[in-house]
Amino acid sequence: MFPKITVFEEARQAVDMKTVALGYGLHINRSGMCLCPFHAEKTPSAKVYPQRLHCFGCGESADVISFTQKMFGLAKPIDAVKKLNSDFGLNISIGQAPTAKEASEYVKRAEERRAYEQWEKQAWRTLNDYLWLMRDWQEYAPRSPAEKPDERFVYSLHHLEWAEYLCREFIDYNKAGRFSMKGVVKDIERFMEKKGG
């Protein structure tokens, strides 16, 4: 027996907040910030997260449905789902129960999305920990020219910029780009386990 799926859940699973925000004309900077579309401002105070937009200026917080509803002054959340469905080609069957196949595909997509989000959090933690380890190892710099350099300091000299680069790329990449870093993240995980990072 498949769980009951609403068109609202389907819409939230089918398209992420950044895609919707960009699709509806918001300009998102490298930090994920943009001008809030719900109040007048000159400096970006709205942060775009994978599932929500939150404005630190006016306090507005919206998922893809409430964002679309408010952006276009739509009367009901179902109208926002219909607009998202049309604008982003979500292929959601509105007004009829999903078939067993559609329900199965939805459950599969939801599981894949959860698995990816779990991996993404762990991957970011790994890259961030690696960056901080490289920064910490800078403290092992020799105190004098005669002192033999510690191997941790030497390693950090060769890898600090690379660690910073990986973190920047991970932030800037889309889902496919981040997932393409899976092998690098795995290598760093192994390194961190060996070095006790």
UniProtKB/TrEMBL annotation:
This is DNA primase. Keywords: Metal-binding, Zinc, Zinc-finger. PANTHER family: DNA PRIMASE (PTHR30313:SF2). InterPro entries: DNA_primase_Znf_CHC2, DnaG_primase, Znf_CHC2. It comes from the Bacteria. It holds the Pfam family Zn_ribbon_DnaG. SUPFAM superfamilies: Zinc beta-ribbon. One of its GO terms (biological process) is DNA replication, synthesis of primer. The keyword Iron does not apply. One of its GO terms (molecular function) is DNA binding. Residues 33-85 form the Zinc finger CHC2-type domain. GO terms for cellular component: cytoplasm.
